[in-house]
Amino acid sequence: MAYLGVPGEEERFAHPAGGDVCTSVSFKPSLLGRPLAAATVYVDARVDLAHRRLLGATGTDDLDYALTEELLRLVAAAAGGLPLRPVSADRTLAAAARQAITEGASEAAGLCSLAALLKVSPYRLSRVFSRETGVSLTRYRNRVRVSQAMDQLAEGEASLADLAARLGFADQAHLTRTVREHVGHTPTVLRRLLAPGSRASRAARSRSDVLVPD
To answer: Is the Cα torsion angle 114, 119, 122, 126 positive or negative in sign?
Structure first.
């Protein structure tokens, strides 16, 4: 998820032990068009991949304009469908569900077990989560697993079968289908795109289709 902040507004975030890494993007008020009212934005896997490739290109002297424009289009699309007046209790429930999924809680493996963990009915959890985030629990969970897959592919993971098993996919084919659905590329292609200093990575930086920042 990404977080939207309004100028002059104070916010607090709980960070994992040891801290974390984030990218901060500031907009001129004139670019926003209307005041921001939502606190979170669902970042899909295509935006995630674009962000990773932008960061990979920051070591060059020329950042790709087309890549930046593509990122802004994707972020705008993600932010456009958010509810403007979220209910506090619903927002808290959705945040707890996201946390359980992101942290890999064993109960997050299924809707019923996750609902039991959060002490709500599966129907309420599913309905609230979809309304607050704009995506289903199933898609969000898969989105988290795709991000984890990209992390490990960028680190050089060679075995897709082992990767699939570690992330809880039925098999390698299931991993490949899910990754392609979310990112538009197979894990094999992503391995080349995300490899630091690879020929594919260097070539990507010089093409107008190179990417920028679920």
So the answer is: negative
Structural domain count of the chain:
1
**What are the pLDDT tens digits along the chain (214 aa)?**
777 777 667 777 677 777 777 887 776 666 565 566 556 777 888 778 877 777 776 665 555 555 665 666 666 656 655 555 556 888 899 999 999 999 999 898 888 889 999 999 888 899 899 888 888 888 999 999 999 999 999 998 889 999 999 998 989 999 999 999 999 999 999 998 888 765 444 444 444 333 333 4
Encoded tokens for 86: 């979220």
- pTM attached to this predicted model: 0.60
Q: Is residue 91 part of a domain?
A: yes
Decide if 182 is inside a domain.
no
Residue 102 lies in a domain: yes
Measured CA to CA, the distance from residue 41 to residue 49 in angstroms comes to: 16
Residue ranges making up the domain that contains 97: 87-133
